[in-house]
Hints:
The protein is an alpha+beta fold.
Amino acid sequence: MIPGPFTYHRPGSVADAVRLLADFGDAARPLAGGHSLVPMMKLRLATPDHLVDLHAIGELKGIERQGDRIVIRAMTTQQELLASQEIASFLPILHEAALQVADPQVRYRGTVGGNVANGDPGNDMPALMMTLGAGYELQGPDGARTVAARDFYQGAYFTALEPGEILTSVSVPVPPAGHGYAYEKLKRKVGDYATAAAAVVLTMSGGKVASCTIGLTNLSETPLLAEDAAQAVVGTSLDDAALKKAADAARAIMEPAGDGRGPVEYRTYVGGIMVARALKRAAARAA
Ligand code: FAD
């Protein structure tokens, strides 16, 4: 289908973008890569009267190290994430996961900011950002504020973003050197959203798990942090009993939709398998 009519705006600064969004209120939407928003507009599931394109805003581009954090600005594309040496060296789980987002065509346009701000439970970056303990920098008519990724997602397509606010960057703490990581994503075919996916970041000491965080994608209407599952493996050598305990604890919080990717029981079952696989692969990588 063809999108409804809209007025196109191309501000050159965050301040101008925020002003436009505040002026037009609910009738306006920020446009980033357009690879979630434009399909929604074509289906008339989104009918904004005003599109505020963020592409001309230089301050929204780039990845840089700031002390013990990596700052990824909102208009960084998934392809730029993949090409970044900083990401490959310090946040390798993001490199691994970005390779599994959609396909190269989408990755060249789709942005990190759009992926995390969208609130689609199928997006891969939100659970990763929750696992890594990232913070989202937001700018709105009343100024700037930071919201933890873990507090950002409130329901499907419902986030902590207030009217007129845009997400300007994602700030990710660098995990300890030698950490293990893995993103396991089950999908029907290359380029598909997850049937079920699990992110793991852990540290090992003396052959036992010293710390662990687990995130889940597309297994509820928001990304999930599987805290009991992570706790179940701390202090263990990840033997079969610990892996089963973690998978079962993760399954207990999953509420996937039953849809074309499978019925609820199937997606919950394979969700647990993704958790166990990610734990094993992360441990094998940990120094
Ligand atoms: P847009 O589509 O421009 O925007 C998405 C939403 O976020 C809109 O509501 C917009 O107003 C809002 N928004 C955008 N930027 C900001 C900002 N800075 N501040 C506040 N609000 C903002 N994604 C995955 O994670 N995994 C997949 O496997 C996957 N597969 C895909 C397959 C196909 C065929 C397609 C078309 C898309 C797929 N996607 C997938 C989605 C893709 O990654 C999108 O690019 C991403 O979800 C949104 O990023 P965007 O930059 O395109 O944002």
